[in-house]
């Protein structure tokens, strides 16, 4: 990472599940243990990072975003352990996270179908509202049923993105600011629907330049779920996402409406 052309920006980290013990996790290993996560929060505190949400980023203003040491912790899907394990730690350290909710089902139907994963419950509305009231958690959209969006028709996209946003906003009585593409699958057509929905930001995984202002609807993130403390230090360094982009470029996804047949 010594290349001088690599640029710095706010790092956006991606988590899924938080477990007391490794045996509580699933076989896809989209989890971090409570112990390891607490260490990460302590490291962020020690290094004087301030955790912010996308609403905060909007308030701070993109032009001021690199004046302080900000970082954004994002959590996908809205598993029940976000309430039981993550939330107490956010309160303990007074730190913030953005959670992307799958709002039309109450368990991980999509990973059970694709990988015969164990069944995990998602949070219910009263848990979500309690977290929302704390001011430490911002919620964002992550569709109704967690499909790979490029494979859907426009009508289906509308339902999964625009209707989902309206439903959630009604439940939370608050405007949603950001969206996460399921599996990070993104095409221009999908991105347009997310813009049309009225979101201000959207986060991806293996696409985007790692520089937020380059594309507010393709904000690259780093998966943190597993890995060592040394790996974590590397991943929170301000140049990591742009380094990933320079090294690996952008993954490409096929779009149903634009001719790919499947
Ligand atoms: Zn997801």
Distance between the termini: 39 Å
Could you tell me which ligands this complex binds, including any ions or cofactors? Answer: zinc ion
Q: Tell me the CATH superfamily.
A: Glycoside hydrolase/deacetylase
- Spell the H/E element sequence: EEEHEHEHEHHEHEHEEHH
Strand composition percent: 5-15%
Q: Under CATH, the topology is which? A: TIM Barrel
Number of helices: 9
CATH class identity: Alpha Beta
Structural class designation: alpha/beta
**Biggest beta-sheet profile:** 6 strands, parallel
How many domains, in number, for the residues?
A: 1
Radius of gyration: 17 Å
Number of DSSP-assigned strands: 10
* Form type: globular
CATH hierarchy: architecture: Alpha-Beta Barrel
Question: What is the percent of helical residues?
Answer: 25-40%
What do the pLDDT scores average to?
Answer: 94
Low-confidence stretches: none
Describe the structure in your own words:
- Helices cover 36% and strands 15% of the residues.
- It has 262 residues and is of the alpha/beta class.
- The protein has one domain: Alpha-Beta Barrel (TIM Barrel).
- Helix 3 (80-93) links the parallel strand 5 and strand 6 (97-101).
- The model has no long low-confidence stretch (mean pLDDT 94).
- Bound molecules: zinc ion (ZN).
Write the layout of secondary structure elements.
Layout: E1 11-15, E2 17-19, E3 31-33, H1 34-46, E4 50-51, H2 54-60, E5 70-77, H3 80-93, E6 97-101, H4 109-115, H5 125-134, E7 137-141, H6 154-172, E8 178-180, H7 188-196, E9 201-203, E10 222-223, H8 229-235, H9 240-248
Parallel strand pairs: 1-5, 1-10, 2-3, 4-5, 5-6, 6-7, 8-9
The chain binds zinc ion.
Residues 76-77, 142, 146, 182 line the site of zinc ion (ZN).
């Amino acid at each position: 990472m010594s290349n001088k052309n690599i640029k710095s920006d706010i790092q956006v980290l991606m988590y899924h599940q938080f477990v007391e013990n490794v045996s509580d996790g699933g076989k896809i290993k989209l989890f971090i243990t409570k112990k390891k996560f607490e260490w990460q929060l302590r490291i962020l505190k020690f290094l004087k990072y301030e955790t912010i949400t996308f609403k905060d980023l909007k308030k701070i203003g993109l032009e001021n975003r690199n004046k302080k040491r900000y970082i954004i912790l994002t959590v996908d899907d809205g598993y029940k352990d976000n309430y039981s394990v993550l939330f107490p730690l956010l309160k303990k350290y007074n730190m913030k996270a953005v959670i992307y909710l799958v709002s039309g089902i109450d368990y991980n139907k999509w990973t059970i179908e694709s990988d015969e994963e164990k069944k995990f419950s998602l949070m219910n509305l009263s848990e979500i509202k309690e977290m929302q009231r704390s001011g430490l958690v911002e919620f964002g959209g992550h569709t109704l049923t967690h499909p790979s969006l490029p494979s859907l028709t426009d009508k289906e996209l509308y339902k999964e993105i625009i209707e989902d946003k309206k439903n959630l906003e009604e439940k939370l009585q608050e405007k949603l600011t950001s969206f996460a593409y399921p599996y990070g699958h993104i095409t221009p057509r999908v991105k347009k629907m997310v813009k049309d929905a009225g979101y201000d930001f959207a986060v991806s995984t293996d696409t985007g330049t790692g520089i937020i202002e380059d594309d507010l609807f393709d904000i690259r993130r780093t998966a943190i779920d597993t890995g060592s403390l040394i790996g974590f230090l590397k991943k929170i360094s301000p140049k990591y996402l742009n380094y990933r982009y320079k090294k690996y470029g952008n993954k490409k996804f096929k779009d149903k409406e634009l001719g790919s047949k499947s």
